[in-house]
Amino acid sequence: VVCNLMEPGEKALVCNTGYFSDSWAMCVKSYQGQVVNLQMPVGACVDPAMLEAALKKEKYKIICLTQVDTSTGVKNDIKTLAAICKRIQPDALVTVDGVCAFAAEELRFDDWGVDAALTGSQKALGVPPGLMVCILSQKAIKAAKNRSTPILSYFANALNWLPIMNAYEERKAAYFATPAVTLIRGLYVACKKLLDIGMDNVFDMHLKTSLAFKAACYSMGLELVATDKKHAANTLSAIKLPAGVTKQDLVPKIVKRGVIVAGGLHKKIKTTYFRVGHMGLSAIDPRRQHMVTVIEAIEGALIELGIKVEKGKALAIFKAAMGGYPLKSCL
Length: 331
Known about the structure:
The chain is α/β, with parallel strands linked by helices. It has helices at residues 2-5, 19-30, 48-57, 78-88, 138-145, 158-169, 181-197, 199-219, 247-255, 281-284, 290-304, 313-321; strands at residues 11-16, 34-39, 62-66, 68-69, 74-75, 93-97, 116-120, 132-136, 236-240, 262-263, 273-277.
């Protein structure tokens, strides 16, 4: 996204909610762009008033948003933020990192006025890692075509790929480079399954699973890194460690119960929390009972550490929140 849309010396506003917002900034700098960092407190989403003030202060070529920052489990309101950007700086390009959001959190690319959005194949799309999926608006493509300086990439140069894509749309042969064809086939299968389910149903299943899992966590005395429950992501939960418990105390005890969780990632709080994903098949195919297994593992680990937890309560709350947790699948 950055290498195609920005030229050296141009400015990007990075709306920073964590580790992966920092990655936006590093990417911009790598392509000789200037970064203005709009920093949010740890666990908070982007403040619309702060964004509006920043946009009124100076002009930007691109505005970098992260729909879900995996390091904090915080979700940003892309619809509201994009509308502010379009109202104050209609010429700026609104770009969205959706790696931990696409195919699980709602994103209406055209309706919300997003110009570029990207994800990896490995999260809610449910494809093995290795693909970068990128969507560009006509406005973004025009910006790439009308540059005054060369695009500082070869393989990631959109202008090298667009003729190939246009040719294939016309059922004509064309070649630039060999993509990861096996992964692309996997992406096709994954997208077909999601569309067969219906994306509104997919979003609802992620929301339901997220709320039920978080309710189970609250019942065990656990708290989220997100400072407001309304802004907690539906794709994962960033969970604070209980007082007096370290990651080294808890995580191995969860792992020995057959569940792998991720440690903290945000540099300011990385030793104080752990993360649990609940996206893709874990949300849309409850027959697998992924979240049941996770809840039982966390509960067992806490009890082993001597933390007062009522055995079975968290799972009962989860099942009740899931509507009795019938073993039905969307697939």
